[in-house]
Write a structure and sequence with these properties.
Layout lengths: L10 E4 L2 E5 L6 E6 L4 E4 L5 H15 L5 E3 L5 H4 L9 E5 L2 H6 L1 H13 L4 H10 L5 E3 L2 E5 L5 E6 L9 E5 L5 E9 L15 H12 L4 E6 L5 H15 L4
Parallel strand pairs: 4-5, 5-6, 6-7, 11-12
Antiparallel strand pairs: 1-2, 2-3, 3-4, 8-9, 9-10, 10-11
Helix pairs in contact: 4-5, 6-7
Protein name: MBL fold metallo-hydrolase
């Protein structure tokens, strides 16, 4: 029996494009299905959560996950990456260093524990982290088959020093923003944020998607260009960045 997106808790955003809001931290994971390949965007907060995402993606598309894009190196987005064995993993240039250096992995583990992830799960997740093989410095087009081409764009720094966005052309166009955009709460600026560049990163998102695109935030409901523009202005005011 064919399973539906809704039965698995996924929201269909456009043809072949969906997302789900994961429990606890309301983190978004995305899915883009082509004719020959399947892309998942962000991996969840643990290997177990990543495995559930991979299995659900395979159930919804009938194909194994071939590609994984990590929007930025925070635990709730990358700790599930080890579950995507065999997938080609992409991230912005510099993510490889963050996920490789012992001190950065320890900080990710500690941040996960501070936010409520069990110590044993956080330690296992940090130990299993594997840096992305493919690093995006500008833009990178993935051909998923059947005319489905997806653009990975290094639009940061902003929320972190290594922010990657994913543009799925179509009607409507869909932009996965990572935590450059948040809807369910105020955008979080931790010690690895680059506030002086964050508004400009949102300008790049808007240039990618345009006025009629759907923008999928890292946390919260799907938004439009007006929401992204308003958040850009609020961040500029908050951080004292001139337009």
């Amino acid at each position: 029996m064919t399973v539906t997106w809704e039965e698995l808790g996924w929201e269909r955003v456009a043809a072949g494009v969906g997302r789900c809001r994961l429990p606890v931290w309301d983190c978004t994971a995305g899915l883009v299905a082509g004719e020959d390949a399947v892309l998942v965007i962000d991996a969840g907060s643990s290997p177990a959560e990543g495995a559930r995402l991979r299995e659900q993606a395979q159930s919804l598309t009938g194909h194994r996950v071939t590609h994984l894009a990590l929007t930025h190196p925070h635990f709730d987005h990358v700790f599930g990456a080890a579950a995507f064995t065999g997938a080609e993993v992409f991230g912005a240039v510099g993510v490889d260093a963050v996920l490789s250096r012992l001190r950065d992995r320890e900080e990710l583990r500690a941040d996960a524990v501070r936010n409520g992830l069990a110590e044993t799960v956080a330690q296992e997740s940090a130990d299993l982290l594997v840096p992305p093989r493919h690093l995006v410095s500008g833009e990178w087009t993935l051909d998923l088959g059947g005319g489905c081409q997806v653009l990975l764009a290094n639009v940061g720094p902003g929320h972190t020093a290594h922010d990657l966005a994913v543009l799925v052309p179509g009607d409507p166009e869909v932009v996965f923003c990572g935590d450059l955009v948040e809807e369910s709460g105020e955008p979080q600026a931790g010690p690895d944020a680059v506030p002086s560049h964050w508004p400009a990163a949102l300008d790049r998102l808007l240039a990618l998607g345009g006025e009629n695109a759907l923008y999928v935030p890292g946390h919260g409901a799907v938004v439009d260009a007006a929401f992204v523009r308003a958040q850009r202005d609020a961040l500029a005011t908050r951080f004292g960045v001139s337009p």
